[in-house]
Specification:
12 helices; globular; disordered C terminus
Length: 294
């Protein structure tokens, strides 16, 4: 059973599951903080973000898998505490309205409007730290490098990679990008003929998600599967969540007090998947020792 979990394609699907579940559980954590700390929620959010940074910091010196797990959890907590609640805080501070308010128009929450305003910031950082980084090993970035003839060749072989920082940045940027993409898609797509456009975008997005799922099944190492699963899982979440915005089903993760069993099961599955992923180095070492002794 143990060896089965860490073989292709299961190891990649395990990484995908972890990346996917960060999204509904992120919403649940947001609501739990809001309900549990009430007027002190922003203080609690700051603390959550600080804990995320500490986890990433401690992961900088860990092994590849330990660093990847630290970056995943730390980046996830940073997003919940310092991104999500920052948008909420400033939307309340400046009394940002829900726009547009015309009949049958899309009325985004005030914090969503604050998030939409960051699109140029995200794009600038994406270009400076992504597209202009010729030493990146990100397949997405290198796809554009190859096709734009923008790359000097393969990255430097001995260039040390900080897996905790890389994974945390991936969690933040992919989540940020997906949020912005769908906020703008819904904003434009709920007006007139834009509905057909958003349906087309949804189909294209889902095809991309399906391709990423297939790529996950090709992974053979736990650490790499986790890093690939983070991005793939967040993209797949877009395909799973969007129908809820159009009334297909209720978003149970937004109502943890109303659906405690559902959210408890999702949490247990997520924690179990993390534990299974973290056990991989010990399994590898034991297998290597057995093969040497035999």
């Amino acid at each position: 059973m143990t060896s089965f979990l860490y073989r292709k394609p299961v190891v990649g699907l395990l990484g995908l599951l972890i990346g996917f579940l960060t999204q509904p559980l992120g919403h649940t954590a947001y609501k739990v903080l809001e309900s549990g700390f009430d007027r002190y929620v922003y203080v609690a959010a700051v603390v959550v973000g600080i804990v995320g940074f500490i986890i990433v910091w401690r992961g900088l010196r860990g092994s590849e898998l330990q660093a990847t797990l630290s970056g995943l959890i730390g980046g996830w907590l940073i997003w919940i505490g310092w991104f999500e609640y920052a948008f909420k805080f400033f939307s309340v501070l400046y009394d940002v309205p829900a726009f547009p308010v015309e009949e049958n128009g899309y009325a985004a929450a005030p914090q969503a409007n604050m998030l939409q305003a960051t699109v140029t910031i995200m794009l600038a950082l994406f270009l400076l730290y992504g597209m202009f980084n010729l030493q990146t090993k990100c397949n997405f970035m290198r796809f554009f490098h190859r096709n734009l003839r923008f790359s000097p060749g393969m990255p430097t072989p001995d260039n040390q990679r900080s897996f905790a920082r890389i994974t945390a940045m991936e969690v933040l940027f992919v989540t940020w990008f997906c949020y912005l993409f769908w906020l703008y898609a819904i904003y434009l797509g709920t007006r007139g003929t834009g509905v057909q456009i958003i349906m087309g975008l949804y189909l294209l997005w889902s095809a991309w998600a399906a391709y990423l799922v297939w790529k996950c099944t090709q992974q053979i190492r736990m650490a790499a599967a986790l890093r690939y699963g983070v991005g793939a899982g967040i993209v797949l979440w877009g395909s799973a969540e969007m129908p809820a915005h159009f009334g297909a089903y209720r978003e149970y993760w937004l109502y943890p007090l109303e659906y405690p069993i559902f959210n408890a099961v999702v949490t247990v599955v997520f924690v179990t998947a993390l534990v299974l992923a973290a056990r991989r180095p010990a399994t590898q070492s034991a297998a290597k020792s057995a093969s040497v002794s035999s």
